[in-house]
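Changelog excerpt

This revision adds worked examples to the README so contributors can see how folded entries look when concatenated. The first example is reproduced verbatim below.
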Amino acid sequence: MADETELAKQSLLINNIPKNSVDFVMRVLVIRRGSIIPYKNSRNEGTFRTIILVDEEGTKIQATLFNKHIETWKDSLKPNKSYYIAKGRLDRVNPNYSSVHKEVELAFTDNTIIQETEARGFNSQISGWLFIIGTCR
């Protein structure tokens, strides 16, 4: 992979990456890393993990890792850490599932590259978010 200076030059904000693109670099901060969840449907079974990422502009995107990609990046994509992600795939959001971005989500492929970087440049308000999951009464 290119050095950090080259990645910074190539890096695009989430909203500037063409839909269905596979040739891009984005710099994001991990704000949520979900649990590994088993699934089973008529076509497949396995596990998945959802990751919520945010760029320097504050735009969030959801990434879902399935099966072997969970293991491949088990030591990466940690909350409050910043990464360059290259050669992922932007897919249209499936309307049957919830997502943080209204149009696209990030899919990881066998060619996806992830490189940790410094978290500088991210708004402290972004990295300081606290997500509370619960029920209202």
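The second example, added in the same revision:
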Amino acid sequence: MRSVPVVVVFVLGVLCSLGVHYLLCYLQGLSSHHDMVLHKTFSPIPYDGSDKYNNIPAPIILAEKHDLQHSSSNIEALGTISAAIEMKKTGKLDKALKLFEHAFAIAPQNADVLNAYGEFIEETQSDIISADKMYFKALISYPDHGQALVNRQRTALVVEELDRDFLRKIDDKRDKVSRIPESDPALCKAKKESYFQHIYHTVGIEGNSMSLAQTRSIVETRMAVGGKSIAEHNEILGLDLALKYINNTLINRVGDITVHDILEIHKRVLGFADPLASGMFRRTQVFVGGHIPPTPSHIIPLMDEFIAWLNSDSALRMHPLLSSVRGSKPG
């Protein structure tokens, strides 16, 4: 008879355990549902349900786990910015700068962070150019950011005038050099040295470890440098060949450049380092860090568009430094 109560207690215990288990699962399901955060599509800051910058209804999406992590970085960055602003108000500029740098490091595309960091740079360091870059980046992330728009409109005029002044100084130096006779020994030496430096810095950007003296030696003697890879030698030789091609054939054809000319330059740049890929458009997709270059099918139309711009009146009237910068921007 004693066994009956024991069995009843055991059965009740099992039922209670199952009930508690299903209750916990249900509560966890509700919790995970509430943890889903509503975001405005492409918004750089967590969306709070209100549209502060326009009245156009935007589609709502649910953030997955990776979005939540991104959102947590934004929240931390915005909190850090608030602390930095308080530090600035109390005159602790060094601590404020470190906080701004930290916020920028964890949320480099957050428009609020970029705008606040730009304002700090402008007010405390009087660095208009760096501040303008921050406002510009903020508008790239969020074109409708009101304060960044106001700041950018103000600084853009100042930066534009600084650029014009800088270009005038370059033109003055160019004019001074052009008045020197071509036969002047000092000018010949300076042009030759500039040629070596151009090659040295160009291949150096791509990771070539050759020194300036080693670069000069390879170009002048075509002799190998001990301890350096064949690829590094070939990069220097290819660039030297491409520059000679430009100086001998294209220098007098400004405004009449063709796609074939670009491929001829490419053939010489890569002719030693990668002869099978030189002088032709790539046929496979490549990736450069977080940037995704155009697909192979888009390359030819984009190159035709680039050549049309390169030979256009607007490009020819543009300052050479500005046109070279615009022409080298990634697509």
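Reviewer comment on example two: Confidence is low (pLDDT under 50) at residues 26-69. Residues 210 and 227 are 10 Å apart (CA to CA).
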